């Protein structure tokens, strides 16, 4: 229930308040009206927009997050999955005669604070400069969000960076030793952040973007390949029964069968060549980046690889090698494919359909303009 609240004269000259944009200050005052008597309110950006700034075209999530960045409000995750906002020292500033107890189970809640150094570090990592608003994507699903680094009214870079519709997510989960360094922080949408929980990021990507191989036969049901065999039985057989040099001309039917056999053998040979080419390219990339090389082309691996070669054709490169080199160049721009901060990428991971597509789309890159590698 909305309440009448009071504004103290000191508010207007508060050291932090004077550095915030007007809309953020106004939103902050408005929150007092809609917070309960203990200073808690649900984090419901759309509702807050309607309640406080209904006629303004502003990115409300960014302004809420800016207040969090400045420490004016705090985010609290409740055990039931809801997120609430808390106004610290609310009861000290507001004179409330009959305090109604909060309905939120705050005692079991967990405060979520992102240090301002981390915020700035992540903004820099993603190429957002002071005074800019940068559109960013969820690392996992590509959902859009933003980073906002406002200027103060005097035109100086604000000390606080805000995030809209996107959350800072530990790439290596905290319980697996992941730290708060900007290298370990990726941006993810609320949905992916919540549904990933403490799962391994690569496993999460592979599960979230399942295989879909279109018209091709199901994966894993390809031609049997034990190791990297280069001798193809079909090809040998067709050679041994080759009519070349024979005095009697073979019948048209036999020629037909033979030419069909020959053609299929050629197809097989070129298929093997492609697989070899791709794994050779991978192995030389892997050597440079201390990633595991492909030693054996198992049946399943060959089948996956064959499917991905088909997928790569859609990118319009004239040769498979060019297309695969393009894929590897994308891996070069991905900090985690290169083993930072995690162990390097493996061939089988790269050959997962959803994963390869995301890699090609550049989803795992950051700060393209300032790439060091
Ligand atoms: Zn997402």
In short:
The chain is α+β, with helices and mostly antiparallel strands.
Set out the fold topology.
Blueprint: H1 22-34, E1 40-42, H2 45-52, H3 60-69, E2 74-77, E3 83-86, H4 90-93, E4 110-112, H5 116-125, E5 133-137, E6 144-148, E7 162-164, E8 167-170, E9 185-188, H6 190-196, H7 201-208, H8 233-240, H9 252-289, H10 299-313, H11 320-332, H12 347-350, H13 353-360
Antiparallel strand pairs: 1-3, 2-3, 2-4, 5-6, 6-7, 8-9
Helix pairs in contact: 1-3, 8-9, 9-10, 9-11
This protein binds zinc ion.
Model description:
By secondary structure, the protein is α+β, with helices and mostly antiparallel strands. The chain has three domains: 1-113, Arc Repressor Mutant, subunit A (Orthogonal Bundle), CATH 1.10.10; 115-208, Orthogonal Bundle (DNA Binding (I), subunit A), CATH 1.10.30; 233-243 and 250-370, no CATH class. Helices cover 39% and strands 9% of the residues. The protein has 13 helices and nine strands. The protein has helices at residues 22-34, 45-52, 60-69, 90-93, 116-125, 190-196, 201-208, 233-240, 252-289, 299-313, 320-332, 347-350, 353-360, and strands spanning 40-42, 74-77, 83-86, 110-112, 133-137, 144-148, 162-164, 167-170, 185-188. The strands form three sheets. The chain has a four-stranded antiparallel β-sheet with strand order 1-3-2-4, with no helix packed on it. A three-stranded antiparallel β-sheet has the order 5-6-7. A hairpin with a 6-residue loop joins strand 5 and strand 6. Helix 9 packs across helix 10 and helix 9 runs parallel beside helix 11 (320-332). The longest helix has 38 residues, at 252-289. The protein is elongated. The two termini are 55 Å apart. Mean pLDDT is 81; it is low at 212-247 and 367-373. Bound molecules: zinc ion. Zinc ion binds next to helix 6.
